[in-house]
């Protein structure tokens, strides 16, 4: 008897699955980062916000990734290598440090600094997306990555006093 019930329900399950995937449209093609399988990336991925800078979250075809907008204007990959010390600009936003790569402006690449594994976010600002708003929207999810360091400024490296006598 249970076999008949399964056989009778199988078309309903398939139709339901098709209906669900049909409404969401095609997934955004992405490549997973080298350490996308890290458990810390799973912690980030399950906490990705439904929107960043008013762009809707979309399905992707790769582990530990996220995409927002249609077309996708914000792409996230967890599991990238933690950047080494750099002279590139580093932004500290509510306890999360991001290294900015503006070499392909108006497309900007931000990578968490002092967190392993690291998260990389690519933002196409030509679509009107705000890098600051996007990173702030992602901060809560990214905060689940273990922190092992932080950005430092020239005053920290050179021993320049921050207070004047």
TrEMBL record:
<dbReference type="Pfam" id="PF12028">
    <property type="entry name" value="DUF3515"/>
</dbReference>
<protein>
    <submittedName>
        <fullName>DUF3515 domain-containing protein</fullName>
    </submittedName>
</protein>
<keyword id="KW-0732">Signal</keyword>
<feature type="signal peptide">
    <location>
        <begin position="1"/>
        <end position="19"/>
    </location>
</feature>
<dbReference type="InterPro" id="IPR021903">
    <property type="entry name" value="DUF3515"/>
</dbReference>
């Amino acid at each position: 008897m249970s076999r008949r019930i399964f056989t009778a329900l199988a078309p309903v399950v398939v139709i339901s699955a098709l209906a669900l995937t049909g409404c969401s449209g095609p997934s955004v093609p992405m490549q997973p980062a080298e350490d996308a399988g890290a458990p810390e990336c799973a912690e980030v991925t399950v906490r990705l916000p439904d929107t960043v800078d008013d762009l809707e979250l979309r399905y992707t075809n790769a582990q530990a990734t996220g995409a927002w907008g249609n077309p996708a204007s914000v792409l996230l990959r967890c599991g990238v290598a933690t950047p080494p010390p750099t002279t590139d600009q580093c932004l500290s936003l509510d306890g999360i440090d991001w290294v900015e790569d503006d070499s392909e402006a108006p497309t900007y690449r931000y990578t968490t600094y002092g967190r392993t594994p690291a998260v990389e976010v690519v933002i196409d600002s030509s679509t009107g997306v705000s890098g600051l708003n996007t990173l702030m929207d992602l901060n809560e999810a990214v905060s689940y990555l273990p922190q092992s360091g932080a950005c430092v400024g020239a005053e920290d490296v050179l021993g320049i006093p921050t207070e004047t006598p």
